[in-house]
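Hi W.,

Here's what went into the run:
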Amino acid sequence: MTITHNGEALALEARATVADLLVLRFDDPRPHGIAVAVNGEVAPRGEWAGWMLVEGDVIDVVTAVQGG
Amino acid sequence: MTITHNGEALALEARATVADLLVLRFDDPRPHGIAVAVNGEVAPRGEWAGWMLVEGDVIDVVTAVQGG
Amino acid sequence: MTITHNGEALALEARATVADLLVLRFDDPRPHGIAVAVNGEVAPRGEWAGWMLVEGDVIDVVTAVQGG
Amino acid sequence: MTITHNGEALALEARATVADLLVLRFDDPRPHGIAVAVNGEVAPRGEWAGWMLVEGDVIDVVTAVQGG
Amino acid sequence: MTTPCSDDLVIAGEVLSSRLFLGTGGLPQVALVAPILAAARPAVVTVSIRRTSSVAEGGLLAALRDAGVRLLPNTAGCLSAREAVITAELAREALETNWVKLEVIGDERSLLPDVVELLDAAAELVRRGFTVLPYSTDDPVIARRLVDAGCAAVMPLGSPIGSGLGVLNPHAIEAVRAAVDVPVVLDAGVGTASDAALAMELGCDAVLAATAVTRADDPVAMARALRLGVDAGRIARQAGRIPRQATARASSPVAGRIG
Amino acid sequence: MTTPCSDDLVIAGEVLSSRLFLGTGGLPQVALVAPILAAARPAVVTVSIRRTSSVAEGGLLAALRDAGVRLLPNTAGCLSAREAVITAELAREALETNWVKLEVIGDERSLLPDVVELLDAAAELVRRGFTVLPYSTDDPVIARRLVDAGCAAVMPLGSPIGSGLGVLNPHAIEAVRAAVDVPVVLDAGVGTASDAALAMELGCDAVLAATAVTRADDPVAMARALRLGVDAGRIARQAGRIPRQATARASSPVAGRIG
Amino acid sequence: MTTPCSDDLVIAGEVLSSRLFLGTGGLPQVALVAPILAAARPAVVTVSIRRTSSVAEGGLLAALRDAGVRLLPNTAGCLSAREAVITAELAREALETNWVKLEVIGDERSLLPDVVELLDAAAELVRRGFTVLPYSTDDPVIARRLVDAGCAAVMPLGSPIGSGLGVLNPHAIEAVRAAVDVPVVLDAGVGTASDAALAMELGCDAVLAATAVTRADDPVAMARALRLGVDAGRIARQAGRIPRQATARASSPVAGRIG
Amino acid sequence: MTTPCSDDLVIAGEVLSSRLFLGTGGLPQVALVAPILAAARPAVVTVSIRRTSSVAEGGLLAALRDAGVRLLPNTAGCLSAREAVITAELAREALETNWVKLEVIGDERSLLPDVVELLDAAAELVRRGFTVLPYSTDDPVIARRLVDAGCAAVMPLGSPIGSGLGVLNPHAIEAVRAAVDVPVVLDAGVGTASDAALAMELGCDAVLAATAVTRADDPVAMARALRLGVDAGRIARQAGRIPRQATARASSPVAGRIG
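Here's what came out:
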């Protein structure tokens, strides 16, 4: 299936979870200091392992950066 | 009946109109440069003669005064 | 003889007067709106015709220009 | 004789010295932290004992006070 | 006439006769209306709407009508959009104008605008067909929202009403000017002629003054001074001033000095 | 005519026609002299004295004479009393006026007055029968010394020549005004109309502008703006402005509001 | 420690360690984090929330965690309440703090607050259990509305973000201070130490600085300067300054002078 | 110690312990001397010279000697060079120091310097072997003349003595700084910590405060505030502040925002 990750299209196997995505992108199912939004709603850290992504999901993975 | 005119109680004969009130207070049924609100809504100049007041009506009669 | 006129050396015939210098430079023995200093002192307009210059005199001829 | 001390007339015995004046006013021939002017000139500390006052001398005795 | 026709101030399609708005609050006597108007030649004169127990009310209205000046009723003192809307409706009825200087204040001590209620009232009055000139803060984002709501001009404050502190934040007034494409009328705080001139130099299209005139020692003279100040500032703005620079620049030639 | 006769500016017994002094330094072209003078209606126009290699010198002098305006020669660029005195003498001879705007500067970069040399030159020129208008700092003690030396006016700077920074220290200008009983002419630093108005409101009797006009994008328009600004400030000063206050003061009545 | 415990700054029941808030935007290198924090000893450090393609992100977060400083995520760049709310939610999740510096701007050029969207976002975030510190204008009426909405502090701007113009309208900041009973943190515009000291003297409880430090020639030195400036201003405020007066007052005795 | 040794202030070859000069005028009670000195850690403390009828004089001198602070006698109140010179001579004799803060004022109301008498007195005192620190105006040309006369520093005023108006003309103070190569000590007008910080940021090498401390509600706290303010301003000056710019500059990244 195809999802949108941080604004870019990304192909994932069917039934991939948020944790799978994080492993794919960060080699870590629970990276520290980040947060995940799925379709504009927060996906709590505790649900990453079980949260199944579906075709067309829009995922944002964010962290803290320099800011005024 | 009793109405409130510019914040003060005023006794009027039953079936008095806005025009009657204006005659009473200004000796003029259509004084120039004023406006009338009945219960917080504008009573248009054209309706003063026919606008029947009822017990408890709150009437404000205003004009232009000095202002910044 | 040689005099200094507005900062530059100038050769004049002996016995030349201030008026002679003005004629030489301005084609006019009494140009309007100017003043003359000889060796740092004002040479009054009335004395130009008779004021004899001598070797080494320092002459400034000035007028009004734009100024704040 | 009469001298002026800090703006006021003061009677002193003839042949009184600056030191005598200081003893009279401060019980001390060499008070610390003060300076003396006689007729507008400084009388150096070292000369107080020997500095003879004369009729009409104007003496100022000053010290340090609060100041901006 | 100090400003060419091509430079007329136009609000809501109406050509106004000058760039000075005059408030009447604090006027010591009605007899001064005529000479003040003659000295100020204002584009509009503001009035408030209040309960009356006599038609005359000291004859202010009559004096203004005699002068043939355009009236701009305000909603001074209103603390909510609701109050402001009914006050505007009564003003329209009493004065037969749909122009209103919209004021909705946050409290009666500071008299500062409550921009939230102001935006609500502006939208509602525009819907009801009013030409709305809102008294606002010097916030360019709010100014843009007021224009989006249909206001015909914006009237940012220079400083608190009646304070005479002039333009406390010139940078903000320039930002308001840059943020909108409707006329900007500096409202509140003007104390003297240089304040009015500065406001115009910052890019304002007009200036409103009330207390500065009515409470001056000589109201007629100050009316004239402000009128001249507004014209001076307008023309200076158009003339293109020299840049400010930290160091001196000779205005007399260096060359040709004697000795 | 914006200022009543009873309010004429008088210096050394001469009644001047306005309260704006104009400098010609930086004028882009002589053709602008006439329209600028028509717009500014200055009391005097300043000129500098420089060596000349032709009588014409671009015809500035002729243009000014045609306009019939009073000339005020300056000693711009002089670094010593000696230089300034001879320059003043030449000016008197060339222009047949004993008025002089006395400038003695400390250096050619800042163009700031050297008040020590200035005082010497002022005393000597007064002794020689000149009417001396000294360009000075905003120091009230020096202003008093210049008056004691016989100067007919004092001309404190608002900010450096040509900087366009306006009046950097209004408090000092007010102090100069309070310190002397001769006319105070604000000199140097004026950049736009509000600067001129402010100077007059601070108590100055006149304002001199040069660069502000001659280097503006539109010199004629700025000349007009400054003229209006000077008049506005003068009248405002006389009108007695409202006091500045930190808190608001209602300009509309509180009583009688509806609802 | 320059401020006694009794003078600690408390927000939402939390005792903060100082009155300087530090922004990290524009930091040239992460290696400067430690020395800057040592010099500034800030109460909190702000960070932004952005998409990441790596966990490290230059190690800023790690450096801040090592320093054990309190993090204050902001919603910088959000143009709507909706954006700001989700950004705050993500910040809470990523950083395990429910504190948020709420920013909702009107446009990306001026970066000025959009107080309408700001009020909506503040109310929603308070409802969701956040401790909200809103970046706002210097409008006291809006400040009061933000407090009524449940904000734990207000953060009025001194001047536009990154401008270094300091406090453009001290009168307005004093009015904000007087309008609310929660801590007032001056946000945006601070350029140097005297700006920070002035803000505190005006009654602010703390000052936030970002660009002033991170883009200074020597960020560590400026961090120290601002820390001292904040303390200086705080203590001066409490010390009760002398009144400003137009005339001099001798600081040395008049009596007893010689001669 | 807030300033590194390499940054010590040196006047006439003497290394001073800080960049704050303290005046004692107006001190409510001698008992405050010790805590004020502990809080301010001043480089020098100024005193005046007056006639005495007792040696003690409230013990001020003893209190200052106990604190081991360097004394700087002034010639406050002198109206002529003659008076100032004899006062300086008496100070040297009484206090065994050849340093003098030279004050020659134009009148007793404004307390402003008379720079003509000041220059005469400075030249004479330098001739007599004094280290002269003259209280002067903010005129850079006079500052240069004072240095040419041999003064070891210059002390321009920020505003009138005791006025608390701070630095009325920052541009002039920067010009004084640029005009001379001796230490510049801002004298007179400081009212609070931000004034002191600003003076240092403008390039002054030290600041003198008297009334600001002695007449504050809490003199000891204000002494501490001014000490911090001077250090803050000094360090900020060296840190190289960001430029002032009219428009905003984002301190948070634009890229990577969600939604």
